[in-house]
Write a structure and sequence with these properties.
mainly alpha, 4 helices
Length: 129
């Protein structure tokens, strides 16, 4: 699982640094899930960050994802995180709370912005192409 996390971290950094199609929210959220959100705070573009980073000293009840990344169309796509099943509901609540605190909705703007956090199980992989 540690290796999977590092591989996915590198993939996420590639989406941010090479594709340049992520907004601040989708660049930051997977890093928070992994406990390495200061990577973005120290370097907004995550340029040339090492694949191995030091985890933050965080509150004892904070759940950290085994892997997490952005995906989708970019420029406002989505993010996913992998956690153990017994941690999923609590992690989802923590992740949404962190997001809402970091990126509060401006009620006065009249924005129709939607935010949805949900728990799901992975499906089977492709059987044929």
């Amino acid at each position: 699982m540690d290796l999977l996390g590092l591989i996915v971290d590198a993939s996420h950094r590639g989406a941010v640094n090479l594709l340049h199609n992520q907004i601040t929210e989708t660049a930051w959220l997977p890093l928070w899930a992994r406990g390495i959100e200061t990577d973005l705070q120290l370097n907004p573009l995550l340029v040339r960050k090492p694949a191995i980073t030091t985890q933050l000293d965080v509150q004892p009840n904070r759940i950290q994802a085994l892997a997490s990344s952005c995906f989708g169309a970019g420029f406002g796509g989505s993010c996913w995180a992998l956690v153990y099943r017994h941690q999923a509901e609590e992690f989802s609540k923590q992740w949404q709370k962190a997001y809402d605190e970091r990126f509060p909705v401006d009620e006065s703007s009249g924005s129709s912005e939607t935010r949805e956090f949900f728990v799901t199980s992975p499906g089977p992989g492709a059987f044929c192409l």
